[in-house]
Specification:
66% of the residues lie in helices and 5% in strands. The chain contains 18 helices and four strands.
Length: 512
């Protein structure tokens, strides 16, 4: 009798959270769909003006960019956590390292995102959409006085709804939360997130229709004898993915050289986009129009290479400024361009039939995101839903796995987790009264040898801030595998240094 009561209660709990997920998803879907619609309308208007330039219009662009930049700077100064995509902030919130006022985030991110992304910068709407959705989920939790795990599930389900509404991809939205943000595959989390993602997608479809966001057509199925192209392209994507991650993480230091206050650094890309828009108006925005243009005609090799350089550099300039905007869609766009460069190059050499060039362009989007985001399942599902075809899952998986493996072997961290460490570390260091640092090597056969960072419970008031592996310096993250010969750089409070050193030395120098 007791067992049946337990099962009945558990079923009610899941049903209740599914209903909660549907409510959060419907609200988040409306917010994100409106956000997406306003960006598209503003971007279309901006492109139209760039195509029909005049001295008056150019002067208007300069004045409008300055006003928009100063207004966004004010919003960022008031609430710094609206900067960037917002995904690292959500991860930090779910891990318990950060917390925010949901309303302060929601309206400021919405307004600043529309103005910044709609101006034509190479920023994506998807990261901000995820943060907007999570803010809706947090708002629902706070209004209903929910705390602890219930609150975290609601925030995560809102994040899934945000991505689902932004891309019309409910399965990818759910998987992204499980694989990249929440790191938890419990039934309560995925059922609530899936319900929220489905509801958000249904609301979004009423705004934008049933056509997939990146509707590109596979004309032919790629034969197995050509799968060696997937390996070569995957290696290329992995290498260029490492370059993207390193450049993205370095951009705040580059911007610091300008001596411009951080909230006002967005003025730089807002002004630089004006000459770029006058020369290449079709390249403006997150990049979905660039990807869709490949469905009509794939450019020649040199125009593609120039396109890649422009989008790569200005994506760094746009995101590195700290403006509210994401890298999700810019990453997919760069992946498509890389796939096009590879496909055209191989076709020119006679090594690839031209009928399969579109296949590689589509596969490369998933591969590039898998390498940079370290989320291959999300990448595969996302491209499948966005393109609107369930064919060719094997080549998608093979290419994504190859790019992921290359990045992993090179020591690349998931980009959002690396960005999170930049946010959390200063806050954690600020809690140390008299911070000191010391180094400890890992010996062969020790407990930490071949263990992941998250496998060890690090002492309270201690921070693993860096791992040195030969000449390589790595930012640690939960998935980082420690190896014999690594040197750990630990920070702690001076009064706890001896105890922290003793605890970590025990597992770094010998097996327990």
């Amino acid at each position: 009798m007791e067992v049946s009561l337990v099962v009945k209660t558990r079923d009610k709990t899941r049903f209740r959270f599914i209903i909660i997920g549907l409510i959060i998803g419907a609200v988040a879907g409306f917010v994100v769909a409106l956000f997406r619609l306003l960006i598209e309308r503003m971007l279309d208007f901006v492109k139209y003006l760039y195509i029909h330039p005049s001295p008056l219009i150019i002067g208007g662009f300069i004045l409008a960019s300055i006003i928009i930049g100063l207004f966004i700077a004010l919003l960022v100064h008031q609430q710094p956590n609206i900067s960037g995509s917002g995904i690292p902030q959500i991860e930090g919130q779910l891990h318990g390292d950060l917390d925010f006022n949901w309303w302060a985030i929601l309206w400021r991110k919405f307004v600043a995102g529309v103005l910044g992304i709609g101006s034509g910068l190479f920023l994506g709407r998807e990261g901000p959409s995820i943060q907007l959705g999570s803010a809706v989920g947090q708002g629902f939790a706070d209004v209903n006085h929910k705390t602890g795990s219930d609150r975290r599930v609601m925030i995560a389900s809102g994040a899934a709804a945000g991505l689902s509404a932004a891309f019309n991809a409910p399965m990818a939205g759910t998987m992204f939360v499980l694989e990249e943000v929440y790191h938890n595959f419990s039934p309560l989390v995925w059922m609530t997130s899936l319900a929220s993602a489905v509801a958000a997608d249904m609301v979004s479809l009423n705004f934008f229709g049933l056509t997939p966001v990146l509707h590109l057509v596979y004309l032919h199925t790629m034969p197995v004898r050509l799968y060696w192209h997937l390996i070569l392209l995957g290696i290329l994507l992995g290498l260029l993915g490492m370059l993207y991650s390193k450049c993205t993480l370095a951009m705040p230091h580059v911007y610091a050289l300008t001596k411009i206050p951080r909230p006002m650094q967005g003025l730089i890309p807002l002004l630089l986009v004006i000459p770029l828009g006058l020369m290449y108006p079709d390249l403006l925005g997150g990049g979905n129009s660039v990807i869709l243009s490949f469905g009509a005609k794939i450019p020649l090799l040199w125009p593609l290479i120039i396109m890649f350089v422009i989008r790569f550099v200005f994506s760094m300039v746009s995101y590195g400024s700290g403006l509210p905007g994401g890298i999700f869609l810019p990453i997919l766009t760069l992946g498509a361009v890389i796939g096009a460069v590879y496909a055209v190059f191989m076709a020119n050499l006679g090594l690839l039939p031209r009928m399969y060039m579109m296949n590689l362009i589509i596969f490369a989007m998933a591969g590039y995101f898998a390498g940079i985001g370290k989320a291959p399942f999300t990448a595969i599902l996302l491209i499948t839903e966005m393109v609107g075809s369930i064919h060719n899952l094997l080549p998608l998986a093979l290419l994504s796995l190859t790019a992921f493996t290359v990045t992993d072997l090179l020591g690349g961290a998931p980009i959002y987790e690396a960005l999170l460490s930049r946010l959390v570390l200063p806050n954690q260091l600020g809690r140390l009264h008299q911070p000191v640092r010391f180094e400890l090597p890992i010996f062969a056969g020790a407990t930490l040898d071949s263990a992941q960072v998250r496998d060890f419970k690090w002492p309270t008031d201690s921070l693993l801030v860096e791992i040195r592996r030969g000449d390589d310096r790595r930012i640690p993250h939960g998935d980082t595998v420690l190896r014999a010969g690594d040197t750990l750089i630990i920070m702690t409070d001076e009064r706890h240094q001896q105890e922290v050193r003793r605890v970590i030395s025990r597992v770094a120098e010998s097996p327990e």
